[in-house]
Amino acid sequence: MEDRLLQFARKSTGCTPRLGEEGGDAMNTERKHTQPKAQRPSQLRLSDEDVTLPPRLAHIQNLPWLDCYDQQLRTENKSENTRKTYLNGLRALVETPLPGEDILSANGLESMTVRTLANRLEPHSGRIDRWTHSMSELSPSTYNARLAAARHIIKWLGHRWPDHLVRARTGKKLPRTLSRRELTSVIEAANTSENAIASVVVTVLLDTGMRVSEICNLNLADLEMEGLHAKVLGGKGDKDRIVLFTQRTRTCIESYLPIRTSRFREDDEAFLLNSAGRRLQPRGVQRLMDQLAEEATIPKGRLTPHVLRHNFATGLLERGADLVTIQRLLGHTSIATTRVYLDISDQTLREVYHRAQSVRQTISEGVGVNEELVDEQGGTQTFGIDVSRM
Q1: Using an 8 Å Cβ cutoff, are 60 and 114 in contact?
Q2: DSSP class per residue in 263-309
Q3: Which of 35, 309, 324, 332 is buried deepest, with most CB atoms within 10 A?
Q4: How far apart are CA 169 and CA 141, in angstroms?
Q5: Are the C-beta atoms of 55 and 68 separated by less than 8 Å?
Q6: 177 near 310, Cβ under 8 Å?
Q7: Residue 333 in contact with residue 237, Cβ under 8 Å?
Q8: DSSP letter string, 127-166
Q9: Can you give the residue ranges of every domain in the chain?
Q10: Residues near 252 by Cβ (< 8 Å), separated by ≥ 6?
Q11: Any idea what DSSP says for residue 171?
Q12: Distances from the Cα of 149 to the Cαs of 6, 101, 144, 297, in angstroms?
């Protein structure tokens, strides 16, 4: 029986098994030898044939890609800022030329169809690699943001992202906050500023923790003065939430309303109006922050609307609020985003502890101490919402 199996192996495989080998082993050895080795995705290259679009894109393959892709981002509830970031970052990718290609014109970029884009962005043609190499001077966070946009559109086109293109490593950064002295200077500068909306902007930002886009999109009807809260509609990720404020903030808002009435021109819904009577924009808020930073003798760029948001969060944590409460007030999707404020609180504890130990050592040495202990790390202990209301 064994001899018959060996003869069958010779006829079926065309080879003679070595002595001591079973017929089945000979067949397996031959199959391993003749089977072509699979190529890695990075070894594949663009062929002369057009790429195959997924069925969901078949009906829009001849339409301009910019409008189609922007509509896709809207369907996914991407915020306006995210859509702008994606589209601006992807322009450079689409415009990146391969050796021998002509420079793509602005009109050619905008009129390019979805099918043409799918062929142009075939992942293994080398275009994405050239584009990533051109971003070597960017910071890791900016690089990763643009890489995320590229991954998104590649997936939308039905391609597979190259495995060798990975995110850049970023160090862990704590949110920036103002120290107690800096925060006091900013509040004083806002209260005495010639800009009529300075005080209400700083007060609302510190008391609610809203993002700059959210306070700019806030309508007067969204404020519930009796209930001391406001409705944030269509925030980041197109999510709605309730933010709280104090009686002090209500008084500040009521003082601003006559100014708003005098500025009214066109938009009768917007809560914050600029001097031209139009809705205040994020860029206008940042210009106001730069002005207040100069008046408060704070380095330019250190005071931003988002820094005030960080001060709001750290202040809540230092007054005993739990992470889930802070997450809901800030509108974070994941509590992992909120957890970063724990590191700031730990840093504050260490600084206070070391200063206290230093003073204790000074007292034990018999030296008088006239300095008052002051927590230099940011927070809003003297300003902000009452945690007991939560």
Answers
A1: yes
A2: H-SS-SSBSSB-TTSSB--HHHHHHHHHHHHHHTT--TTS--HHHHH
A3: 309
A4: 9
A5: no
A6: yes
A7: yes
A8: HHHHHHHTTTTS-HHHHHHHHHHHHHHHHHTT----TT--
A9: 1-25, 61-156, 180-343+382-389
A10: 199, 200, 203, 204
A11: -
A12: 59, 24, 9, 38
Q: Are 181 and 379 in contact (CB under 8 A)?
A: no
Side chain identity at residue 303, one-letter code: L
Domain 180-343+382-389 part of CATH 1.10.443.10: yes
Q: Residue 274, Cα to own-chain centre: how many angstroms? A: 28
Q: Collect all residues with Cβ–Cβ distance below 8 Å to 46 and sequence separation of at least 6.
A: 122, 124, 125
The residues annotated with a catalytic role in the active site are 211, 236, 306, 309, 332, 341
The reported pTM is 0.64
Three-state secondary-structure class, residue 66 = helix
Could you tell me the strand order of the sheet in which 241-244 lies? 223-224, 229-232, 241-244
Give every residue of the chain whose pLDDT is below 70, as ranges: 1-49, 171-172, 237, 266-267, 344-390
Determine whether 195 is exposed, middle or buried from the number of CB atoms within 10 Å of its CB (0-12, 13-18, 19+): middle
Say what percent of the chain tops pLDDT 70. 74
Helix (H, G, I), strand (E, B) or coil at 231: strand
Which residues partner with 219 through β-bridges?
A: 270
Cα–Cα distance measured from residue 94 to residue 122, given in angstroms and rounded to the nearest whole number: 11
Structure tokens at 16: 């003679």
At 51, list the tokens: 């790429």
Closest to 280 measured CA to CA, from 291, 268, 271, 269? 271
Tokens of 285: 């808020």
Q: What is the pLDDT of residue 240?
A: 87
Encoded amino acid at 355, one letter = R
Torsion sign (Cα): 181, 196, 235, 282: negative
In DSSP terms, which residues pair with 229 in a beta bridge?
224, 244
Spell out the residues 6+ positions from residue 117 whose beta carbon is closer than 8 angstroms to its own.
65, 94, 157
pLDDT for 10: 52
The Cα 208–Cα 222 span in angstroms is 13
Is the Cα torsion angle 324, 328, 334, 337 positive or negative in sign?
Answer: negative
- Cα distance between residue 265 and residue 271, in whole Å: 13
Spatial contact of 110 and 68, defined as CB atoms under 8 Å apart = no
